[in-house]
Design goal:
Length: 101
């Protein structure tokens, strides 16, 4: 038993409620640098009310998927995710393994 995490930090990050439900979402570690809306303007935007980045529309075309994948690849803090649950727009977390004595 140590101080280290059992899961990578990004798997335990909060998600933002502003994301539309679906596979793609911006998690709570976003710096709101403007990269997402710049690379995927049809799907990402900055919420001016609380200055956060969000996925406001899931991709419908191959071009939109490619733009979001490009944004994922270039995100400086890796805050754009493509592992969301289509039902809730939240990540599919695996349960933590039971502690071994």
């Amino acid at each position: 038993m140590g101080w280290f995490r059992k899961k990578p930090l990004w798997k335990s990050s909060p998600t933002r409620a502003q994301n539309v439900s679906g596979k793609y979402y911006v998690d709570g570690w976003s710096l709101c640098c403007g990269l997402c809306p710049q690379l995927a303007p049809n799907n990402c935007r900055i919420n001016e009310k609380n200055l956060t980045c969000e996925v406001f529309k899931q991709p419908e075309t191959a071009a939109e998927k490619e733009q979001l994948q490009d944004a994922i690849a270039h995100s400086c803090v890796q805050c754009i995710r493509d592992d969301g649950d289509d039902k809730h727009g939240q990540p599919k977390y695996e349960p933590l393994p039971a502690e071994q004595p």
